[in-house]
């Protein structure tokens, strides 16, 4: 897939394949709103039809595929399926991305594992205690019971920890929010999976006994861990990660610091997930356990399977 | 394949496989005109028969294959087919390689693409406008009509550009030839494909209106782009490239400078060709277009296919 | 496979696969004699049964495989076959490893070739003349006749060289042993292959005419080249190499110096073996020669084949 901006500045997403000799159009350049192939100069329009080529008549050239695409919330969203079915209304709403009251920072990883292992990972934060022991993990996570339920097409898994010490990341957040970092807090994690493969995690801490997740904004620090998980092959995916926060929203140094921290923390997941994938490929015959803590991932996979089956039925 | 020089200094080309335990003979060394295996000391003669081995009788050792080989024009030419059919007369004549009036410099690339994509590339120089925009490309190339014809076993494709400004490479050449580099010139490109997979390209510029390609030597700068394309696997080849020139033939600094420039320019082709190959492998079902500018490559492939069929018929 | 020490300090060898979600247990940590999975905290005991997991009942979790294991002679020995057949008495005795009169140093290589090519290599030291020309090789090796015989389950191949100059390695050893390094010596090499794939090579030099291998300890320098060859895949293995010596046993600088030398020398073998393997894979149809010098490897392979067939028959 190749992306470029046409004459009106709108993003176009095309197959990265010149219909002339198969060169990747992404090696070309943009001229007057057209994508010019860097090999022999075929110019391609936003719709996937060749526009012109020096010395050639192009109206009979086979078109390449153009993908419906929306640019919103700071991301480009592609509909890789049947163009007739593309519906902008299906785009997951991200109100925080368009609000002055929030700040956002994030990054991108290429990860060599099935994207569903990443969903499992994000829908069961028990692993923080082990994988992220020095930053966001704490013993109380895996002691707190986890609740999982389905709301329509969304899977939610939540965990509440009352009267705990804030781990290093949340001390920093409390500090930024002008709150005491040494006091006991009530901590929450609410993971929401939605199609096609987004996981939004509401996380935060409130001063002890003030209502936890429901507490007044003045006594808590909270944010949303943002995860857009784009499958690439059966055993690899692109992982767009970030954090939207409601504290210190005007301080870009905090954005940078959180991005760095998240990069380091999510790199720990990357290592674990790629090794887990390699192990699963070595032992294809093994069945994994589905424990209560795994319910979030299990239910998310059910919704994915159902959506894939529905799409296959339509086709 | 392993190459070495025997007692008389003649080059031998042998299978790189010791008949004793399969070690590569290329890890060995040469002693008294014999190639000695670096593992257990079997000594191999130019004909592929073992000559001796410490403590062994070797006359019953299975021979390895010896390839007919000619050293000429500064290259070593191997006949990988049926030895009976090897005919030194089939070697493509390269008179410039043995003439005092010419100078030559070149290099070698390993390229991860089908060698025929390289032939396509060289038999259609339209791409210079796009791939080599900063050195030899110019807009007039893809505006000039291309002519393609077959002369016996040779495919020729030519393009003449009258009254153009010389691009940077040819300014340098004009300067070297003692000619004014700012004036308008007539430029030519005549690509010749011949079996098994050589492409020689006559290129040059003459001062405007003096006869172009046919102009007197005193008013032009010209050279031959030399391309020996040796297939390795279905999707890789060795690319011997160089330039033979008739200007500044006694100046090795010019040879070095051209070699460097050609290295840089042909690296641009390498990038494009490897990406094109990768794209074609991702989309094996796609048919490519065969435009007029592609006629050189298309015709060359026909001659290759015919030669392969003829060889298969013989066998 | 993952190794760790339990509460009593005993080594355990387990499948490196957490029964929960397939994460490698080797990414975890040890706590109170248990191996804790680094993903979600499952704790695994030495027998391959899950011991506990936060918030879970684990008694129905499927066990993973635990391999019988012995720690002795400075190595950990794993029985990867049927646990019922594991018999500590089958461990190859290494008296030098537990004797004050000997010193030992060694290392480990991962080598991309069939482990049997390594056995061939070690059971025919003719190659020293060629592969290790500058250290332990000498012309007399491939001039001396080789004898090969079988003693029960052991294959022995020996070579005696009378009245030769000591090559550089043995000059060093003579010097360490307080013996003159310039005088002629009698040199020996006695290679012993035993199942599953050990090769022990008795090597040494004695002052000329004093009895060679049988000479009194005061007039010779000798050692054992130790090779434990652990197959990994069909075309790769782990190579544990080292040297046990009877000279300068209290001098760790000599141990270091020998280890460095051996590392350098065995790296030459590694290069040759990996290239040989690559060549054999390119030419699967070729038959290799089996000369008298190859008898050690050929016979060792027969014993391996017989043992594999016997095991298959039992199963």
In short:
3 copies of one chain form a homotrimer. Chain A is of the alpha+beta class and 315 residues long.
* Rg of chain A: 23 Å
Strand line-up of the largest beta sheet of chain A = 10-16-15-14-13-12-11
Number of strands of chain A: 16
CATH architecture of the largest domain in chain A: Alpha-Beta Complex
Tally of individual domains of chain A: 2
Strand content of chain A: 25-35%
Structural class of chain A: alpha+beta
Helices and strands of chain A, in order, run as: EEEEEEEEEEHHHEEHEEEEHH
Report the oligomer: homotrimer
Structure, explained:
The structure is a homotrimer of 315-residue chains. Chain A is an alpha+beta fold and 315 residues long. The first copy, chain A, has 2 domains: 66 residues, Rieske [2Fe-2S] iron-sulphur domain (Rieske Iron-sulfur Protein), CATH 2.102.10; 215 residues, Naphthalene 1,2-dioxygenase Alpha Subunit, Chain A, domain 1. Chain A has 6 helices and 16 strands. In chain A, the strands form 4 sheets. A 7-stranded antiparallel β-sheet of chain A has the order 10-16-15-14-13-12-11. A 4-stranded antiparallel β-sheet of chain A has the order 3-4-5-6, with no helix packed on it. The interface between A and C is medium-sized, with 26 and 22 residues. Chains A, B, C: One of its GO terms (molecular function) is oxidoreductase activity. Chains A, B, C: Pfam families: Rieske, VanA_C.
Record the SSE blueprint.
The structure is a homotrimer of 315-residue chains.
Chain A (H helix, E strand, L loop, with lengths): L1 E4 L5 E4 L14 E3 L2 E3 L6 E2 L5 E3 L13 E2 L1 E4 L2 E4 L24 E9 L3 H8 L5 H4 L7 H5 L2 E6 L2 E12 L2 H9 L7 E11 L3 E10 L12 E14 L2 E10 L6 H31 L12 H20 L1
Antiparallel strand pairs in A: 1-2, 2-7, 3-4, 4-5, 5-6, 8-9, 10-16, 11-12, 12-13, 13-14, 14-15, 15-16
Pfam families (chains A, B, C): Rieske (PF00355), VanA_C (PF19112)
GO molecular function, one term (chains A, B, C): oxidoreductase activity
Protein name (chains A, B, C): Rieske domain-containing protein
């Amino acid at each position: 897939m190749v992306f470029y901006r046409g004459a009106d500045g709108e993003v176009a997403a095309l197959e990265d394949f010149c219909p002339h000799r198969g060169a990747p159009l992404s090696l070309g350049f943009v001229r007057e709103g057209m994508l010019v192939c860097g090999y022999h100069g075929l110019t391609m329009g936003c719709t996937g039809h060749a526009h012109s080529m020096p010395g050639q008549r192009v109206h009979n050239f086979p078109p390449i595929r153009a993908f419906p695409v929306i640019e919103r919330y700071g991301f480009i969203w592609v509909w890789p399926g049947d163009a007739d079915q593309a519906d902008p209304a299906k785009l997951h709403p991200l109100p925080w991305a368009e609000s002055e009251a929030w700040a956002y920072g994030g990054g991108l990883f290429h990860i060599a594992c099935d994207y569903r292992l990443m969903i499992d990972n994000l829908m069961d934060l028990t692993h923080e205690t082990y994988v992220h022991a020095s930053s966001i993990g704490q013993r109380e996570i895996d002691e707190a019971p986890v609740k999982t339920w389905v709301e329509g097409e969304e899977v939610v898994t939540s965990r509440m920890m009352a009267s705990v010490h804030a781990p290093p990341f949340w001390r920093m957040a409390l500090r930024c929010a002008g709150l005491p970092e040494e006091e006991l807090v009530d901590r929450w994690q609410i993971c929401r999976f939605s199609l096609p493969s987004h996981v939004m995690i509401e996380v935060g801490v409130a001063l002890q006994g003030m209502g936890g997740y429901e507490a007044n904004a003045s006594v808590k620090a909270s944010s949303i861990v943002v995860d857009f998980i784009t499958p690439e092959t059966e055993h690899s995916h692109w992982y767009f990660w970030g954090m939207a926060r409601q504290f210190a929203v005007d301080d870009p140094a905090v954005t940078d610091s959180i991005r760095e921290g998240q990069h380091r923390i999510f790199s720990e997941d990357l290592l674990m997930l790629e090794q887990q994938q390699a192990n699963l490929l070595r032992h294809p015959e093994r069945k994994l356990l589905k424990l209560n803590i795994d319910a979030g991932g299990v239910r998310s996979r059910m919704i994915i399977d159902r959506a894939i089956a529905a799409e296959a039925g339509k086709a």
